[in-house]
């Protein structure tokens, strides 16, 4: 052995055979991780997510104004800081009525052309909107009772529906009806 090697060997009296075992110990440790990963995957496979619950305001954060306070305002206008589609009972009714998230986004889009919210003939509150520069061919209306019940959505697309509209309500499949969606 040279002087440098002898100095290192004197400072670290580890036999060479022991150094050969280090890679084997590390390799053995790698195998134990694989078992842990398999156990983690088994736990993930047995996971059952909690049920989706409808939105509910926190105590003290209930809406102070009725839905009728939006009549005459645009859907994006806030009443006490809350837009029409941001109200808990309105968003819940829309989600219950329209299962398709992409279609729901059309109703709530701030880029849509809209008219002031109105009261329909049957007493429900209605918000009407349409695609910019295409209101005659692509329009929609969402109706909800003043207590947040009886949510119903109408969607009309001239290109795919011709002279009919598709109506959505909670608990029933979409139905076609003649004409456009109500606007007043």
Give the N-terminus to C-terminus distance in angstroms: 100 Å
What is the ordering of alpha helices and beta strands?
HHEEHHEEEEEHEE
- Class from secondary-structure proportions: alpha+beta
Assign an overall shape.
elongated
The radius of gyration over CA amounts to 32 Å
Helix content: 25-40%
Give the number of helices.
5
Low-confidence stretches: none
Strand content: 15-25%
State the total count of DSSP E strands: 9
Q: Give a quick account of the main beta sheet: strands, pairing sense, barrel closure.
A: 7 strands, antiparallel
What's the pLDDT, averaged over the residues?
Answer: 83
Description:
By secondary structure, the protein is an alpha+beta fold. A hairpin with a 2-residue loop joins strand 8 and strand 9. It has five helices and nine strands. The strands form two sheets. Strands 3, 4, 5, 6, 7, 8 and 9 form a seven-stranded antiparallel beta sheet that branches. Strands 1-2 form a two-stranded antiparallel sheet. The longest helix is centred in the first third of the chain and has 30 residues.
Label this structure with key terms.
184 residues; single chain; elongated; 7-stranded antiparallel β-sheet; alpha+beta; 5 helices
